[in-house]
Specification:
By secondary structure, the protein is α+β, with helices and mostly antiparallel strands. The chain is built from twelve helices and 45 strands. Among the domains are: 371 residues, TIM Barrel; 135 residues, Sandwich (Jelly Rolls), CATH 2.60.120. Helix 8 runs parallel beside helix 9. An eight-stranded parallel sheet has the order 7-6-5-13-11-10-9-8, with helices on one face. Strands 16-17-18-21-22-25-28-27 form an eight-stranded antiparallel sheet, covered by helices on one side. The chain has a six-stranded antiparallel sheet with strand order 33-32-31-34-35-45. Helix content is 14%, strand content 31%. It is globular, with a radius of gyration of 26 Å. The termini are far apart.
Length: 771
């Protein structure tokens, strides 16, 4: 019977502070500061959640709705690359109109209480042509990404244009800009990074935090840039036959190693990280991230598939490892804009190692290229709700690992777990999931966690940790005068319901909820058994669900509730203001805590709710946070689509290789001569947000209206969605090429050899609307 044990040291002593040259604007009411352990805001530990959303890859008319979706997912900070080539493809003609309107995008973030981080480059990567550098910069006689005066002369006007767009949106003027990232993935030129920071400041950019990516054994100018880390569940940039990279596998273990030497490894020498100190900044800076994989792009030669459970396990594991800032890349997918004289994706034609699709940059993100909700959105929202309410407790806590650690990255037998704690309380994290290689069940499991002279031994009856599970359990958590000694369910949020505080928890599939409480005068539970002993009340056998409310009278005379939702229902929950009071709202329009009753009902009208955003103290003023309607999905009125073949596929194109000997995407000519062609018939009118979903197989698919390319896809075993709102008028034609099975191409599932559309259907995207 495995009993897993560790001791949590006392970390209540103040962390190192005051030694870092990061300074917020004078007089702001909630100054952002950095300590060696965590970030603070207004003197309170601050656990931001940032999500990457590239405004130039999404229609401006839909920005606000998509930002609301991100906010509803618990994202508190929007990050975006400012992609130079999208704004100044032609030298001297810098555009900030339409979908390039940076200022309007940032103002929308501010309107809805979202912070903003511009990642200003100049080189950003982002799977874009030249890493974002315009062609005319590369045509100059200069050395890009260095202090070459000719290069800096080109960068200076770009920085000045950015600063002009963001003028008045800094913290000193009440704006949302909390950080500025300099360059991207530049690992060996600390002097150039400092030069760029000084140039940006001289141009007028200001923020309390200046950041840099810190993977790949990076060298940074001392104490000038906050190092940010990352980690992905899979990669598109490694070799087709390389298997699942070890650099991804390690992110499903609890570890204190921050560096990921695999990110961007195709763009730097393989010896770059040798002899580096991966945790060189650990004593001075907290563990903050900007690129946890919210999904993964597909390249022509390598097409990974990322599932919601992968993303959920990655995010939760990083919190257990010690992360104090969850930053996702991408949180929202998009579409590459059409260039004036060229395509704007990363490609072999531009000397880069990977051929990317011309248009799609969906990234398998929680919110897709057309705003589609993915299951990963719900998985991450569940974690972000927890951080909104409890992140200020978790952030300063130390990550503690057990003595019995996995024996290397091939160990699939040792249970993976850790505790974030401060010597008096904590949170236990378990991850029993990783992609590609399922982990076994762990039967008869219990834990012992020592805080000072007291050890918690839980649960009362050992449990089986199921294969595929990842979860967090609270330890000695104070809620309204009751202390939750432990709960075998994950904290979701608290809701103020009249005169009581209700702690909402999410059960773990396969593990019966158990609650151990102290400070209890009386307790009632709707199911299960209640026992008392050792100053605790123990609730076992509780049936999780919307009626699983344990009601407590505290020894201090207060009222507390603990609602344990089943795992599926918890993933539909939003915390918000409804009818003037806090409510737990379910995605189907149901409401928990409706007028004092604990139940779920179907609303006659979709409720107007103000989604609780950030965990900031001070309430939820409508003027700042906005009000939104969760409308749900229209049903039968969507209509039907049909598909008609007009030309069978010819022989697959012969394989061609490009940079690094990797397979190259087929040339344009093959779509005219060898592609299967179909005509898709659509209804005359469809609701806003309708998608054409194509069930297909093949190698590469492209959709056209007339001669205009409107969508494309590399086959990866997934359906292909096309947003009908984006299409110009005219007949929609789809062409699909088969692939030569001899090409060095990795596809996660399915065959790319035969080009065929099996069927099409119309689906709709759930909408958020501003009230």
């Amino acid at each position: 019977m495995p009993h897993h044990h560790l001791r949590v040291p006392d970390t209540t002593a103040p962390p190192l502070t005051g030694h870092l040259p990061f300074a917020d604007a004078p007089g702001v009411p909630d100054p952002v500061e950095v300590t060696s352990r965590c970030l603070t805001r207004g003197g309170r530990p601050w656990f931001p959640v940032s999500g990457e959303f590239h405004y130039t890859r999404y229609p401006a008319a839909e920005w606000e709705e998509e930002l609301l979706k991100m906010k509803a997912a618990g994202v508190t900070v929007v990050a975006s690359y400012l992609i130079w080539i999208h704004h100044e493809e032609t030298e001297g003609r810098i555009r900030f109109d339409g979908d390039r309107d940076l200022r309007r995008f940032v103002q929308l973030c501010a309107r809805h209480g979202l912070d903003f981080i511009p990642r200003i480059g100049p080189w950003v990567h982002a799977e874009v042509r030249n890493g974002g550098l315009p062609d005319w910069v590369l045509a100059r006689d200069c050395a890009p990404r260095t202090d070459d005066p000719a290069y800096l002369a080109a960068v200076r006007p770009w920085y000045a244009a950015i600063a002009d767009q963001l003028r008045g949106l800094d913290r000193a003027h009440g704006g949302p800009i909390v950080a500025v990232q300099i360059e991207n993935e530049l690992y060996d030129q600390p002097g150039h990074l400092l030069t760029l920071k000084r140039m940006a400041q001289e141009a007028g950019l200001s923020a309390p935090l200046w950041t840099s990516t810190a993977w790949g054994g990076v060298q940074l100018p001392p104490d000038e840039l906050l190092p940010l880390y990352g980690g992905y569940t899979d990669t598109f940039w490694t070799e087709a036959d390389g298997g699942w990279p070890d650099t991804c596998r390690k992110h499903f273990f609890f570890t204190h190693q921050r560096d990921d030497e695999g990110i961007g490894a195709d763009l730097r020498p393989v010896t770059a990280v040798r002899g580096s100190a991966p945790d060189a900044f650990a004593d001075r800076f907290p563990w903050a991230t900007c690129e946890l994989g919210g999904g993964m792009a597909v390249s022509y030669h390598r097409r990974p598939r990322v599932d919601a459970a992968d993303i959920a396990a990655l995010g939760l594991t990083k919190i257990g490892c010690g992360s104090v800032w969850q930053g996702y890349y991408m949180f929202h997918g998009g579409t590459n804009p059409v260039g004036e004289a060229s395509t704007l994706q990363e490609s072999h034609a531009t000397g880069y190692p990977n051929d990317l699709p011309v248009l799609t940059y969906d990234f398998q993100a929680p919110l897709g290229e057309y705003g589609q909700y993915r299951p990963s959105y719900d998985e991450l929202r569940l974690q972000h709700l927890m951080l909104a309410d409890f992140g200020h407790l978790i952030a300063p806590m130390e990550s503690v690992l057990p003595a019995e650690l996995p024996r290397g990255q091939d160990d699939r037998e040792t249970l993976r777990w850790a505790v974030r704690g401060d010597g008096t309380s904590g949170f236990l994290f378990v991850n029993n999931h990783q992609p590609h290689e399922p982990l076994p069940d762990h039967p008869e499991t219990s834990f012992g966690v020592a805080f000072g002279d007291e050890e918690l031994s839980f649960p009362s009856v050992p449990v089986t940790v199921p294969s595929g599970a990842s979860f967090c359990w609270p330890l000695r958590l104070d809620v309204g005068g009751v202390r939750v000694e432990w709960a075998t369910a994950q904290p979701v949020c608290t809701v103020a319901d009249g005169g009581r505080t209700v702690l909402v928890l999410a059960a773990v599939d396969g593990i019966d909820p158990e609650l151990a409480l102290s400070g209890v005068a009386s307790l009632s539970a709707p199911s299960g058994e209640v026992s008392h002993g050792e100053g605790r009340a123990l609730v076992t056998g509780l049936r999780a669900g919307t009626d699983a409310l344990v009601e407590v009278e505290t020894v201090g005379g207060g009222r507390v509730g603990l609602l344990v939702l089943d795992a599926a229902t918890a993933r539909t929950a939003y915390r918000g203001v409804l009818w003037g009071a806090e409510r737990l709202v379910l995605a189907d329009g149901g409401v928990v805590f409706d007028r004092g009753e604990v139940r779920v009902h179907s609303a006659v009208e979709r409720p107007s709710i103000a989604v609780f955003p950030t965990g900031r103290p001070g309430g939820v003023p409508d003027g700042v946070f906005g009000r939104y309607v969760l409308e749900g999905e229209p049903a039968a009125e969507v209509g039907e689509a049909s598909v008609r073949p007009v030309r069978a596929a010819g022989p697959a194109p012969e394989p061609v290789t490009g940079v690094m000997g990797r397979a190259s995407a087929p040339a344009e000519k093959w779509f005219e001569t060898a592609a299967a062609e179909y005509v898709v018939s659509l209804p005359d009118a469809v609701p806003r947000g309708t998608l054409l979903r194509i069930h297909w197989a093949g190698d590469v698919g492209r959709a056209y209206v007339g001669e205009v390319l409107v969508a494309d896809q590399f086959f990866s075993g997934r359906v292909w969605d096309i947003g009908l709102d984006r299409l110009p008028a005219g007949e929609l034609r789809v062409r699909a090429l088969g692939g030569d099975e001899g090409a060095a191409v990795y596809v996660a599932e399915g065959s790319r050899s035969a080009a065929v559309i099996e069927r099409v259907e119309l689906v709709t995207v759930r909408r958020w609307a501003v009230r």
